[in-house]
Amino acid sequence: MSINAYKQTKLFDENLLLLESDFLKAISQLTRLRILYFLRKGEKCACEIIPEMGEDQSNISRHLNYLKDSGILNSRREGVSVYYRIKDERVFVLLSLVDEIIRTQVKEKAKTVKVI
Questions:
Q1: 116 vs 107: CA distance, rounded Å
Q2: Phi and psi at residue 47, in whole multiples of 5°?
Q3: Residue 53 maps to which CATH number?
């Protein structure tokens, strides 16, 4: 069987998997998650985000650009300031689902510890 024929018989789309992987990678880093939650309340200037994160300006700028390039944030320039906002609020639905899974796992582990 050729590689192309094999790919056509797969149960998933490789391109979609790659896009999903890239998206999840973008939100899986701690500083980027903190940025997302900080922006949940609305658009913020980079000058507000950087001090809130407590990290180097260059590091936060890289994370902001990564999130923007990943399609998770939008930005706009106003004079010398750059403002960032969440592009699609459904990212928080995904994070809520992750929170639910984690809570369930913690409860299951707690039950296991009680049994022992």
A1: 15
A2: -65, -20
A3: 1.10.10.10
